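Translate sequence into structure tokens.
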Amino acid sequence: MIYFANALFSFDTGYAIWVLISMVVFLYLMAKFAVPPIMKALSDRETRIKDSLEAAEKALAKAEEISRDNEKALKEAEIQAQKVRKEALEDAEILRTEKIEKAKSDAAKILDDARRTIEQEKKRALTELRNEVAELAIKSASLIIDSELDEKKNKKLVDNFIKDLSKN
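Result follows.
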């Protein structure tokens, strides 16, 4: 162990010169052949990273712009949809009102037609009834007073009878 400790602290000049020469040659070779490609690779990598960062920033800005445009388009679409929905509701209300008015007018017309028809039928029935009553009265009167009255007086009597019936 003592020999090993002495070897560490002893200095050999020839060996040190060879170590120095080999170190200088090594550094020269490294500087000539290894360092430039490494530096070029590092520079290229740095450029690629910068380009990637710039592209990422541009893409982020573009994405934010697209997002703003999408939000704007979405708001416009919502406004348009609300407008269309409102117009549809208004149109439906107008149509409903028109249908109700048409139904009311149709019902009123049907009622008027029915009243007119009933009135006409009533008048026709009354006229027929008067005619039948007149005929019956004439027949009755003619049987009762067959020879006492002439045709003119008979007709006048029946007309007076009919007038009295219509007053009642």
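Note: The first helix runs from residue 2 to 9.
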